[in-house]
Amino acid sequence: MATLHRARWVLPIAAPPIREGWVLTRDGRIVGAGRSGSEPTGGAGRQRVIDSADVIDHGDVAILPGLVNAHTHLELSWMRGRVPPAVSMPVWAEAVIGLRRSAGAEPAEPIDEAVREVRAAGTALVGDVTNTLCAYDVMRGRGLGGAVFLEILGFSAPDPGRAVADAAARIAELTPAAWLKPSIVPHAPYSVAPDLFLAIAAAAGSRAVSVHLGESPEEIRFLRDGTGPWRDLLGRLGAWSETWEPPGCGPVEYIARLGLLTERLMAVHGTQFDASALARLADARATVVACPRSNRWTGAGDPPIDMFYASGVRVAVGTDSLASVEDLNLFGELAALRRLAPGVPAARLLESATLHGAVALGFGDEYGSIAPGKRDALIAVRVPLAVADVEEYLVGGVEPPDIRWIDRTPSNPEPRGTP
Asked: Exposed, middle or buried by CB within 10 Å (0-12, 13-18, 19+), for 109?
């Protein structure tokens, strides 16, 4: 049975919003979308599709594709409210490391709660960064799709090839799921040795590679001359390598030398990117992932959102973890982007939170826009009658009580969104 969903607004994302629109779905896929009165027919002499479909009028809502949270750390969800905002990124990181060492293991219940929270906020896909893979089975069981980035750290790694092989073996032990794409990624320039970067790049294949890059002023100083708070922290942690030599360049140039400046690169944060760095990322067809609320929490500073969009680079959006943000509601992140970049069209911000994130994570053929053949992972957001600019309304901040999955019913409490 096909289902025809009606709504006051339909946002295809790759096309302008449709007022008084419809979306036709069948067998978990989108068949088409359009303005009321343009519903497809079955052909000459045959009954109109609208007459043979299950018709649902969702009323005063906007139907749009499920959001894409391109950067988070679900395994750190137990840290919610336990890591205070910091004056600098190294100070925040040291607090997280100390708290994590005191706990010993990542409890499962907060991860499950976080996945439920992600779903309730209208998110269909995530880019989840992990050191333990402990969120993988929760995501698989809950049907939350996305890329699972097994992150390697090792500034003084004696055997990079062995480190990558061990990570690959851990991934091979996972129960496969069509909606999850696990891969091996490096953490950041101040926590991964050059040889380890090179080994990860060689093993990357066609999967996305997420890297924390250009995140703080301290990182820029560290790459320039090897001094500063990151050098000091590595020393206190016993992780410093006397063989490391500062490259004397910026983060994008550094990552290019290590073979990771490709269209698969997801450069996360980028608060310190200048116009030249963004131009190089755009030329490589890489993605910048903006996490503005987290950047302010960790003391990294506000990302140059206007510059991101002016450069032409693909921009995706992430919340980061509950150790550095109040919630995992991507609409809250959109509101932060709007405050930082009031001149960027709302349509581009919404594209970043849907289609651009899906493409960056390797799911662009399945998610991110309302188009024939894509999955019917669609949400309905309540929109007040007085709203004339629906896109601007959606980037102003939406709370979970005003969001629902259009296929959620009492007999189907979990949104479909995945096979």
From this structure: exposed
Tell me if residue 49 falls in helix, strand or coil.
helix
The dihedral region occupied by 104, where left means phi > 0, alpha psi between -120 and 50, and beta the remainder, is left
Mean pLDDT of the chain: 94
Strand, coil or helix: what is 343? coil
* pLDDT of the residue at 43: 47
Element at 213 (helix H, strand E) = strand 209-213
Specify the pLDDT at position 41.
64
> Residue 301: is it exposed, middle or buried by C-beta count within 10 angstroms (0-12/13-18/19+)?
middle
User: For residues 232 and 175, is the Cβ–Cβ distance under 8 A?
Assistant: no
Six token digits for residue 349: 């911000």
SS3 assignment for 117-140? HHHHCCEEEEEEEECCCCCHHHHH
Residue 104: the pLDDT is: 78
Per the structure block, which two tokens stand in for 206? 């066609």
Structure token digits, residue 21:
């629109």
Strand locations in 27-105, DSSP E?
Answer: 29-35, 54-57, 61-65, 67-72
Q: Is 91 exposed, middle or buried (0-12, 13-18, 19+ CB in 10 A)?
A: middle
- How many C-beta atoms surround the C-beta of residue 173 within 10 A? 7
Q: Nearest CA to 7 among 21, 24, 27, 26?
A: 21
Summarize pLDDT for 145-188 with one digit per residue, the tens.
999 999 999 998 789 999 999 999 999 999 999 999 999 999 99
Low-confidence ranges of the chain (pLDDT < 50): 43-47, 408-414, 416-419
Q: In the structure encoding, which two tokens stand for residue 343, read together?
A: 């001149």
Do the Cβ atoms of 73 and 321 come closer than 8 Å?
Answer: yes
pLDDT of residue 51: 60
Non-local (6+) Cβ contacts of 217 within 8 A are 88, 272, 301
pLDDT at 190: 97
H/E stretch holding 24: strand 18-26
- Give the C-alpha separation, 242 to 247, whole Å: 14
The pLDDT value given to residue 49: 55
DSSP H or E stretch at residue 274: none
* SS3 (DSSP) at 185: strand
205 contacts: CB under 8 Å, gap ≥ 6: 183
Radius of gyration of the chain (CA): 22
CA distances from 259 to 92, 162, 241, 283 (A): 29, 19, 22, 15
